[in-house]
Design a protein that fits this description.
Structural class: alpha/beta
Strand order of the largest sheet: 2-3-4-1-5
């Protein structure tokens, strides 16, 4: 049996070898720690009770992970720190890692396993021998080149399993599993590492439901993790839905720090205007007290600013909006982001805004987080962003009211052409996929949007392949159909092989899609060809826009004749088995309708198969 003295010396030897990231644990340099804030006494009682219930529940295959999510500034880190302190008192604390964007090792997972192993082996000394052996046998394990999953397996999961195999520990561990707190995981910049970590944790706990270990994760559930969280039935708590009005009242009162001012009625009104957001409440109180740069606005006293916030008339709202916006930092894409939210009819999520503008998600979050009193930021990436007050949209659209914050209406025109230009010049997969979506969003907002700027761009790419054999036949078949056309159908109609049209299909990739296939994949007979946006088809069918690229009515007649030749030249049983052949009336109708030279009398003549 290892003595307590020996255990201590072993642990002291392990710590420098594991080299934990102390500033990420929240136990040192607390003034700089992302988890420094603590909960205001009496707040988050409902959420804390839910976490306690989860932590104390019997172990099963799918209750080892709890994800607390919410928008920026909603108190996730304060909750994480408070929970960690509670677990420490109960001797159930396994460790913590507080992530922080743009903070070196704290923005990645390269030192996650070693930091957790150091803390967890302190809580479970029986792990030390296993970790010690592993480090001696695999000295390269702590290298940043080793995957986070390998490090977690060898330094955390395997040592925990080894410790629980001791018969005298299984019973006690199962009744009081240890909880590891991972705060602000959305600020980890290595997204692939987060995905790998989560996938491994789910798999480990599914295979080892009795493992006495749990993860409490806080942070926004980003788009690339949403399906994993839902598919694996990971338990979640939405802080926005769990915030009570009593929470906000206590929080607002703590920010003012005075017992008698504002009045109970005024504090209650501020809580209502915060719309369930701690970040919005903090912004409102900051405005009233003149904190930050607002202190330079000495024309109003705090009491007057409070009445301005509580006021309901338009003039007061305009003054409030203007002062909040004046106080916001000068961040990149600030007005582009606000213009997008204001102008588009559809409400977009954070990933959709970043895709629409072609910027990073964290840049969108930075802007939205700087004005928490004006926007509502959800805890899940797939939820739409909205203004806290509908009157804000009207404010931005009225230049006399918003002045320098009047939205840039030209941002829509820029975004309509920006990605198409990138698709045509660099053939960027992101740009190719995004430009039709942007165009649809803009047309949904403004059906009268001038599309004439697209004509020269469509002409540019189409004219490059105009001289390629079968070019007009191929695009005429695609343009004449309301639905995607299989490659096999095109080849059957034109009696060609894939290589005969490959250059056209590949060359037109920026404006011609092949269903869900990736741009560089080999052409298949089942690929579904369709122009990426309806406006391409409209361009080709308009003689005034397309000029010499125009799909003239004679092409309908040409295709109809080819189609009929195939239909009547094959066995009846073969035709029935091929849905493609049921389309021949459509092409015939197009020829009859649009081609004045179509010879209807020829349809009454007996079928004369072409000579071989």
């Amino acid at each position: 049996m290892i003595s307590l003295k020996r255990r201590k010396s072993t642990f002291e030897d392990l710590k420098p070898r594991l080299n934990p990231l102390a500033e990420a644990t929240g136990t040192s340099n607390r003034e700089n720690s992302p988890g420094e804030a603590s909960l205001v006494p009496g707040t988050r009682v409902v959420v804390s009770k839910k976490i306690t219930t989860w932590a104390d529940a019997a172990l099963s295959s799918n209750n080892h992970i709890l994800w607390v999510h919410g928008g920026p500034g909603c108190g996730k880190s304060a909750l994480a720190r408070d929970t960690a302190q509670t677990l420490q008192k109960k001797k159930r604390f396994g460790g913590a890692f507080f992530f922080a964007r743009d903070s070196g090792a704290r923005s990645r997972m390269t030192r996650l396993a070693s930091t957790l192993a150091s803390q967890l082996s302190d809580a479970i000394p029986e792990m030390q021998a296993s970790i010690d052996t592993t480090l001696k046998e695999e000295p390269e394990l702590l290298s940043p080149l080793i995957s986070v999953t390998m490090q977690m397996q060898r330094l955390v999961y395997d040592p925990v399993k080894a410790a629980t195999k001791k018969m005298n520990l299984i019973k006690s561990f199962s009744k009081s599993p240890y909880v590891i707190v991972l705060d602000a995981i959305d600020e980890c910049e290595a997204r692939e590492q987060v995905v790998d970590f989560l996938d491994q944790a789910v798999r480990i706990f599914k295979d080892n439901p009795g493992m006495p270990l749990r993860f409490l994760i806080t942070g926004r559930i980003e788009d690339h993790l949403q399906l994993r969280v839902d598919a694996n039935r990971i338990e979640t708590i939405d802080l926005a839905q769990s915030t009570t009005k009593e929470d906000l009242i206590l929080y607002i009162r703590s920010l003012f720090g005075t017992p008698n001012w504002p009045s109970l009625t005024e504090v209650d009104s501020l809580a209502e205007k915060s719309k369930g957001s701690f970040a919005a409440a903090k912004g409102l109180v900051g405005f009233v007290l003149g904190s930050g740069s607002l202190i330079s606005f000495d024309d109003l006293t705090p009491a007057q600013r409070l009445q301005l916030v509580l006021g309901i008339d338009g003039q007061n709202l305009d003054a409030f909006y203007t002062r909040i916006l004046n106080d916001s930092p000068e961040l990149p894409y600030f007005m582009d982001i606000l213009s997008t939210i204001t102008l588009l009819k559809a409400s977009l999520s954070i990933p959709e805004i970043s895709q629409f503008l072609g910027i990073f998600e964290y840049e969108v979050i930075a802007v939205l987080s700087s004005i928490p009193t004006l926007v509502t930021i959800p805890g899940r990436d797939n939820a739409p962003i909205s203004f806290s007050h509908e009157s804000l949209r009207e404010f931005f659209l009225d230049e006399q009211r918003s002045g320098p914050f009047h939205v840039r209406t030209d941002v829509l025109k820029e975004m309509a052409f920006k990605f198409l230009d990138a698709a045509l010049t660099s053939r960027s997969p992101q740009a190719i996929a995004q430009w039709p979506k942007n165009l649809d969003l803009i047309l949904e907002t403004d059906p009268s949007f001038d599309l004439s700027g697209l004509d020269s761009r469509y002409s540019q790419i189409l004219s490059k392949f105009q001289v390629v054999p079968h070019f007009f036949d191929v695009i005429a078949i695609i343009a004449s159909s309301d639905n995607p056309v299989p490659i096999g159908d095109i080849l059957s109609i034109l009696q060609l092989d894939v290589q005969d049209i490959a250059l056209i299909i590949y060359g037109l990739t920026p404006i011609l899609g092949r269903g869900p296939k990736k741009f560089s994949e080999t052409i298949s007979l089942i690929d579904q060809c369709q122009f990426r946006h309806k406006s391409v088809r409209d361009f080709l069918l308009d003689p005034f826009k397309a000029e010499d690229l125009h799909i003239s009515p004679t092409y309908y007649t040409h295709i109809a004749r080819k189609h009929l030749s195939i239909v009547f030249g094959l066995p009846h049983s073969f035709i029935i088995d091929k849905p493609f052949f049921k389309d021949w009336p459509k092409y015939l109708a197009l020829g009859v309708q649009h081609d004045p030279l179509f010879e209807r009398e020829a349809l009454q003549e007996p079928y004369d198969p072409p000579m071989k």
